[in-house]
DNA sequence: AATGAATGAGTGTTCATTCAT
DNA sequence: AATGAATGAACACTCATTCAT
């Protein structure tokens, strides 16, 4: 059996085990057994547990970003892009829960090198959303001086909300990924629109609390 | 030294080690040493590593919800309650990063029993936000039939956004916790208000993508 | 059982196993079993296989040099000192063959850190012999300008001869350690005496061979 | 490429790796890679790691004894034979340090079968020296009853001294192999001569120490 | 109330060795 | 004649956990 195929089988098994057990509780023995190969072969092809985990993160990060990108047509209006991106994101995470666990939980929980790997992917998604928010602001013609760090914060908030809703939709019976996407899209687009029209909420002066 | 005090010292040490090293990489040896007691004493008081971790989660979950509750006066308007809650949340997580790591990362990453423990706290916070959203809807007199699962989704999204911004504010230079809270509050309140006034975003018909 | 005692038991076992199997072929399992303790205890007390090996080398090097020193009275004439030193050396190596294997074979064969440890002991013995040769030269009043590096070379040769004879005496039936010492002493003292009296052997001019 | 040539390449690589890493730390992978062939080919030609190591020892033992024999003309006087043999020995070991490491360190350190192989070569060299010592005794016409085991011991001592000096000359700056040979030759020949003339050193009675 | 001493069970990792081709 | 693919067996090392005191 050619090496490339075997390697993908190993990564499949590793993502599953890492996603379900967690990085540290996952044993190379179990991964090898699930992949149907001997442990030395896993080491021959993937070097070490750390390298194997990194390979999992990279593969699944690429798969997720690719799925989102594939769902979005950049020639459509910003709202449509955001909607399509959300749909693709919710769908992919729902279809690959172990991969999502690896990216969203495990990678962030086990030290800098792995967290950085997952952060790179997240940064890419946040950049995508940041661009959409900026485009929406431009389309609204209203608030040209929306401060840069506020745009960044909005993108962060949107991504965080999506991550949270992905888990919620996956675990709450009676809630589909589409409904979750719809709820978030409604909320986000309304909020962005209102912000663009200058409707701001004024916090009370510091120290009053 | 009375048992209750010793126990708190042990929990302090455990939260710090668990938060920094992660649940599995944390060793009972290190925790006992940091607490300044012998390992058998840790076992005598807290039974096992799992129980110790559970105790950490419970204590920190209680501390966080208490901090948020303490920051909110339920006799004030909903927007003010949300603002105050966000401020308290951002402040507490910024001041107790190890505790936040335990609740937000470690507890969710290492199996059902722990995840459930952290989820209970999160549910409480989500309930609080849910109530605020409902109150806001009532105050707006406009959309009495905002579906229940949409309200729940909005609360989920808000909490997720807050979690995401907490990490962002803590790691991005030049962004204060207050700015993050402000950005989120603006966005959320505008979005909620617009939603209440019936401004919805209509998704394109399924299958077009 | 107190720690110090256990540690010596472990070192006893380790010297035996290292001496018989060699550093790499020795397994920590076997050492622990021979010492009558569990493997983790060996690690608790001696840290690692490398540290355990180093501890063996150090202990046995100290024991050997101590034995030689204890056999020699520095207020006696040089010939008597050399004789007593040789006797002590042959006796100690014959009585502790595993320790001698560790010092003479294993330590030199498995990398710099260990070799350096054993070399330090050997250097000490060579220095002792060097001093004796120098004293002998002074006592002979004859050859004050015996070049320094020749004295060093003689000491090296003597120590090498002793090492070689130690193994020979231990493995050749019918040859006692005392006889070996006697042979070497005769040879060495005659050679030194002749050298001191200026009897030199002239090598043929270079290139003739 | 003919088998015989390939085999020598493998042995070249093996001697280098065994000499530098040691028998156990040497890996068949590294040897095969250095030899520029695949691992199965090494097994096809040389059967096993043990057989490969034995082949290395045998080849290098033969090479060393051949070099010494080639340096000696048995029709010359005994002193000249000894001198020439020493020169050849020092030169060969200096020029093939990995081979010398294999013979002098590795082979003796890793179990009977290998040690016996190296001991056979050493025995041959010791025999050669023994013969020279006996010839020297005969030439001196003085001490016909030099006991046999003393002659053997002298030869052992001489060979040990040479081995020791070989290492010393190779690692001490400012000392050439020729100087080392000269020092040893001077010492040995003077000592032998004195012994032959009956100058003996009388040990003090036992038990006095 | 508190601990020094001790371990069973399991981990990641390596390596000599063998087939099928 | 030569190899890519694969493995069984073993090893160093760690850790949660428990006695005896």
TrEMBL record, chains A, B, C, D:
Keywords associated with the record: DNA-binding, Transcription, Transcription regulation
Source species, domain of life: Bacteria
| An example Gene Ontology molecular-function term | DNA-binding transcription factor activity
Q: Does the keyword DNA-binding apply?
A: yes
Matching SUPFAM superfamilies: Homeodomain-like, Tetracyclin repressor-like, C-terminal domain
One GO BP on record is: negative regulation of DNA-templated transcription
InterPro entries documented for this protein: DesT_TetR_C, Homeodomain-like_sf, HTH-type_TetR-like_transc_reg, HTH_TetR, Tet_transcr_reg_TetR-rel_C_sf
Question: A Pfam family matched by this chain, by name?
Answer: TetR_N
Q: Where is the HTH tetR-type domain?
A: 4-64
Checking Gene3D superfamilies in the record gives: Tetracycline Repressor, domain 2
Residue range(s) of DNA binding per entry: 27-46
Record keywords: Transcription regulation included? yes
PANTHER family linked: HTH-TYPE TRANSCRIPTIONAL REGULATOR RUTR (PTHR30055), POSSIBLE TRANSCRIPTIONAL REGULATORY PROTEIN (PROBABLY TETR-FAMILY) (PTHR30055:SF158)
Write down what this protein is called: TetR family transcriptional regulator
Query: Mind giving the lineage of the organism this protein is from?
Result: Bacteria, Bacillati, Actinomycetota, Actinomycetes, Kitasatosporales
């Amino acid at each position: 059996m050619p090496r490339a195929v075997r390697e993908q089988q190993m990564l499949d098994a590793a993502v599953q085990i890492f996603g379900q057990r967690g990085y540290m509780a996952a044993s190379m023995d179990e991964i090898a057994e699930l992949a149907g190969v001997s442990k030395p072969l896993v080491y021959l092809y993937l070097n070490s547990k750390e390298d194997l985990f990194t390979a999992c993160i990279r593969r699944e990060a690429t798969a997720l970003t690719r799925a989102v990108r594939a769902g979005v047509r950049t020639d459509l209006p910003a709202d449509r892009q955001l909607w399509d991106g959300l749909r693709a994101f919710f769908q992919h995470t729902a279809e690959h829960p172990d991969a999502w666990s690896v990216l969203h939980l495990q990678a962030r929980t086990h030290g800098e090198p792995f967290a950085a790997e997952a952060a790179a992917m997240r940064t890419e998604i946040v950049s995508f959303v940041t661009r959409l928010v900026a485009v929406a602001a431009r389309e609204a013609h209203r608030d040209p001086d929306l401060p840069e760090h506020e745009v960044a914060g909005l993108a962060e908030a949107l991504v965080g909300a999506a991550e949270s809703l992905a888990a919620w939709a996956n675990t709450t019976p009676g809630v589909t990924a589409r409904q979750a996407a719809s709820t978030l899209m409604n909320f986000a687009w309304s909020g962005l629109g209102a912000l663009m029209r200058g409707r701001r909420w004024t916090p009370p002066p510091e120290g009053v609390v």
